[in-house]
């Protein structure tokens, strides 16, 4: 029995699974937390990966890394990291993103060029911020890569860093439809050229670990999750980790001139239209802390409240927001009165507020022609009973919760198994029967109330 490993280097932690290559059965796993913050030195990811993999990778024949998308890792002439990585959720590059959009002639020009309109999250916007605000450090940068590229490079010991279509498509200087770097846009953003990782093909071995395991190209975490879940047409994923994401896999590049949908590539040669919010599981963490309880306590409270939270609306923009593009926004609670201002309703409003932003994302996907027959709910906050119960109605679609597992890491492991097998397509791995399934119901006024409050407060 061959073993493969998948690594999910995500915002809050490094998770590793070791799976049987033929079936995907997880035989061992580990998790080590990452430091908090929106700027993190890549060495901290390496340390977490090293700790999590200690004693875990015995007998593993192939490995792949899926990582949080967009993070800017810059290296100097000697391959040393120039400054801590700016992460996908660091909003200091919001002004740079707005400048880039204007300079190219508006959102539509970016959608045409690279399928995605820059927000603060995109690597191109971070590079512009870096060049403008830290010119001395920026002048030392020789190359730029993404978190998974850097970790894959360290693991494989390859001469030149590599990336894959999926993660490259989140930079703002790689065109998924043309399968090519737009070095003109990189130069426009940063002011000069930088060395870029080679884009490996989806099933290519890019090196070997010191122990001799094959290293697969890896990918971005959302692309890893799509591979781990084995998405089919009609499936959409709602992932509730640090970020909230909603995405599907398709055969054609997406094009969203208004910018809500990021037109990413997937990890298999296809496409992955995605909408991302900055505020997901941590909205529940923060609400639980505010109410003086823990996550199970928040769940109990939210379950006691009626759908609609007695009319209370939480706009959950605790870390600013990416979709809608409101990087400087703060969260706000609306429609409180003496009757409804109870912990149960606040807990429920947090669950609904987190999901309502993703309901808008799902509507944007379906309006753009993506077929959605069911939503698969994954990520840390999909473990919450209250979230599971509210999701079908708030999202307006049938919801399934697959067996709880680290699907990003499993997707990376499936890619590693694909590279090991040398077959045309990834091996068939069975995800198993859903742990929870529910149909949507009508809640009068819920979506309208949220949209009205958002419009009145933020004008969008
Ligand atoms: N039962 C639960 N209810 C709500 N949130 C949960 C639960 N279990 C874990 N979480 C949250 O999930 C988040 C981590 O999810 P994860 O998908 O691992 O994030 P990331 O991939 O962004 O690092 C944390 O914020 C944690 O509090
Ligand atoms: O920026 C995006 C997607 O475009 C985020 O989804 C990041 O990829 C971080 O993911 P998590 O750590 O929240 O899973």
Which structural class is indicated by helix and strand composition?
alpha/beta
Low-confidence stretches: none
The shape, in one word, is globular
Measured as a percent range, the helix fraction is: 25-40%
Average predicted confidence as pLDDT: 97
Small molecules bound = adenosine-5'-diphosphate, 5-O-phosphono-D-xylulose
Distance between the termini: 54 Å
Number of alpha- plus pi-helical segments: 15
Share of β-strand residues: 15-25%
- The number of E-state strands comes to 24
Rg, nearest Å: 21 Å
> Could you describe the largest sheet, including whether it forms a barrel?
7 strands, mixed
Domain Carbohydrate kinase FGGY N-terminal: 4-213
Binding site for substrate: 69-70
Protein name: Xylulose kinase
Family: Belongs to the FGGY kinase family.
Explain what this protein looks like in three dimensions.
With 460 residues, the protein is α/β, with parallel strands linked by helices. The chain is built from 15 helices and 24 strands. Strands 1, 2, 3, 5, 13, 14 and 15 form a 7-stranded mixed beta sheet that branches. The chain has a 7-stranded mixed beta sheet with strand order 18-19-17-16-22-23-24, with helices on both faces. Strands 4-7 form a two-stranded antiparallel sheet. Strand 2 and strand 3 form a beta hairpin. Helix 2 packs across helix 4, helix 11 crosses helix 12 and helix 11 crosses helix 13. The chain is globular. The protein starts with a strand and ends with a helix. The mean pLDDT is 97. The site of adenosine-5'-diphosphate has 16 residues, from helix 10.
């Amino acid at each position: 029995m061959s073993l493969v490993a998948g690594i999910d280097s995500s915002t809050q932690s490094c998770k590793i699974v070791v799976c049987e290559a033929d079936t995907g059965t997880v035989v061992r796993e580990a998790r080590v937390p990452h430091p908090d913050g929106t700027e993190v030195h890549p060495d901290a990811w390496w340390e977490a990966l090293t700790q999590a993999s200690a004693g875990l990778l015995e007998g593993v024949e192939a490995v792949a890394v899926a990582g949080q998308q967009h993070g800017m890792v810059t290296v100097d002439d000697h391959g040393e990291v120039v400054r801590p990585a700016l992460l996908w959720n660091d909003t200091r590059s919001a002004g740079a993103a707005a400048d880039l959009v204007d300079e190219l002639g508006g959102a539509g020009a970016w959608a045409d060029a690279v399928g995605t309109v820059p927000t603060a999250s995109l690597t191109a916007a971070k590079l512009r911020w870096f060049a403008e605000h830290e010119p001395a450090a920026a002048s030392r940068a020789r190359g730029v890569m993404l978190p998974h590229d850097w970790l894959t490079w360290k693991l494989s010991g390859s001469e030149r860093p590599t990336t894959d279509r999926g993660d490259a498509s989140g930079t703002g200087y790689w065109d998924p439809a043309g399968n090519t770097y737009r070095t003109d846009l990189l130069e426009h953003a940063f002011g000069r050229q930088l060395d870029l990782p080679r884009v490996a093909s989806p099933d290519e071995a890019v090196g070997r670990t010191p122990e001799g395991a094959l290293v697969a190209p890896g990918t971005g975490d959302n692309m890893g999750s799509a591979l781990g879940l084995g998405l089919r047409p009609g499936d959409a994923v709602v992932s509730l980790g640090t970020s909230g994401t909603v995405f599907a896999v398709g055969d054609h590049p997406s094009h969203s001139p208004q910018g809500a949908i990021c037109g990413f590539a997937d990890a298999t040669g296809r496409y992955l239209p995605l909408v991302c919010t900055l505020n997901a599981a941590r909205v529940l963490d923060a609400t639980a802390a505010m109410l003086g309880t823990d996550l199970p306590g928040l769940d109990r409270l939210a379950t006691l409240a009626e759908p609609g939270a007695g009319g209370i609306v939480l706009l959950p923009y605790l870390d600013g927001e990416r979709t809608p593009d409101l990087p400087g926004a703060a969260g706000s609670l609306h429609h409180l009165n003496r009757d409804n201002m109870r912990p149960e309703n606040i807990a429920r409003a947090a669950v609904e507020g987190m999901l309502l932003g993703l309901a808008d994302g799902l509507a944007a996907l379906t309006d753009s022609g993506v077929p959605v027959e069911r939503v698969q709910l994954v990520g840390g906050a999909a473990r919450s009973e209250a979230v599971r119960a509210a999701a079908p109605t708030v999202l307006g679609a049938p919801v399934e919760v697959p067996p709880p597992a680290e699907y990003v890491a499993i997707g990376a492991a499936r890619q590693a198994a694909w590279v090991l097998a040398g077959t045309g397509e990834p091996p068939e791995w069975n995800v198993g029967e859903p742990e929870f399934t529910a149909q949507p119901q009508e809640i009068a006024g819920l979506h309208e109330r949220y949209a009205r409050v958002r419009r009145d407060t933020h004008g969008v």
